[in-house]
Structures are given as C-alpha cells and as structure tokens.
Amino acid sequence: MEIRSLEVSHNQFMKKMKAEDPDFFKKLGEGQQPSFFVLSCCDSRTCPSTITGMPLGEMFTHRNIANQVTEEDDSFRASLHYALDVLGVNYIIILGHTNCGGILAASSGVQHESLDGWLKHVKATLDEYDKSNEAPTPAELEEHNVRQQIINVKNHPVYQRKGEGVPVIGLLFHLDSGELEWIDPDDNNL
Ligand SMILES: [Zn+2]
Questions:
Q1: What is the mean pLDDT of residues 178-184?
Q2: Fold of 33-183
Q3: What spacing in Å lies between the alpha carbon of 103 and ligand 1's midpoint?
Q4: How far, in Å, from the CA of 130 to the mean position of ligand 1?
Q5: Which annotated residues bind Zn(2+) (predicted)?
C-alpha cells in the first residue's frame, strides 16, 4: 500500500463520520469516557476497536508485543492508572490473538539484542504453562498467555489499589475465522 492511500482512506473516514453526525468530531474533542481498558498485541491484524466494531472513545488501549503485563513496564503502569483512577473504566480486557509472532518468537527461542529484553517477559509467561503438556500447540500457548496476563493484571499494584470491582476479561481473536473466544476465569457471567 502506498503512503497516498492513507490520506485517501482518512478523507473517506472523515466524510463518512460527518455524514452520519455533523457534530461527530466536535463531540470527540469534548472528552472521552471509555468503558474499556484494553491491553492488546501490537500486531496489525488485531486493532481492538476495529475487530470489535467499537466506536472511537470506548476503548482506552495499551499495546505491546504479545500483550504482556509486567510491573517493570512504566508505560503500562501509567496507562492502567489513568484508565482506573482518572477515566474510571468498567472493564479491563486482555486481547490476545492466534498466530502471534511474539509468542512464536519466545517459544522457539529467537534471540536478538533488540528483542531479548522484552521476550524475557513472554518466556516467563510461557514457563508458567503446565509442564505436563509436553508439546503445547501455539493456540494453547496463546490462550495460556491471555489467562496469565489476567492474573498479572490482578496482581499488579495499581489494580490492587484502584481496581476493586473491575472485571478482567480475556479475549482471544482467531485470525483465521474472525471469532473472539471469551476467556473469563472468574465466570463473571458477562
Ligand atoms: Zn501478537
């Protein structure tokens, strides 16, 4: 895709939104009251608002490779704090996906000076996987990753202080079917 396509596509987007509501951008500029804080992978195929069909303003989003929660990550800490303490979101969503390059790189032992510092977090997550299953499939690891990040969010000091009553829900986006698999270890009956 050429860079010019970006401008063309954006113009179409602007025109469409104004046709639906002439005040759309005026309202957008007035503030945000998102219901969801989303942690997702950086993967270009898993844009949270796009795949869920949610409007702008509903999903306060933090992204990193393989959607990891680690207490060492100051950027995530700030996002989580802002989402809970300032915006007052109703739900936290961990959005993983199938065919995740970050999970694959960590599980296959990829090494690179620019990646090692981050992949160590992903490896630590995969190390938590039940060792009795000797050859987990990539999909099993991806689901495990989502479950582990739910636990990590709940143990995060910011969630411990500010997250009372805010459900943490896992979603696994299946790239090859478009389906969202719900992973809700607390059985919130949502
Ligand atoms: Zn990914």
A1: 92
A2: Beta-carbonic Anhydrase; Chain A (3.40.1050)
A3: 7
A4: 21
A5: 41, 43, 97, 100
Q: Which of 87, 84, 85 lies closest to 167, judged by CA? A: 84
Instruction: Locate CATH 3.40.1050.10 in the chain.
Output: 33-183
Query: What is the Cα–Cα distance from 79 to 75, expressed in whole angstroms?
Result: 6
Residue whose entry in the numeric block shows the structure tokens 């599980």: 107
How many helices and strands in the chain, by DSSP H and E? 8, 5
Tell me how far the alpha carbon of residue 112 lies from the centroid of ligand 1, in angstroms: 17
Average pLDDT over residues 24-47: 97
**Amino acid identity of 26?**
K
Q: How would residue 131 be classed by pLDDT, with cut points 50, 70 and 90?
A: low
With a cut of 90, say whether residue 129 has pLDDT above it: no
- In angstroms, what is the span from residue 102 Cα to ligand 1's centroid? 5
Identity (one letter) of the amino acid at 180?
A: L
Q: Annotated binding residues, as ranges?
A: 41, 43, 97, 100
Residue 170 pLDDT > 90, yes or no? yes
Mean pLDDT across the stretch 106-124? 93
Report the distance separating Cα 50 and Cα 161, nearest Å: 31
Distance from Cα 5 to the centre of ligand 1, integer Å: 25
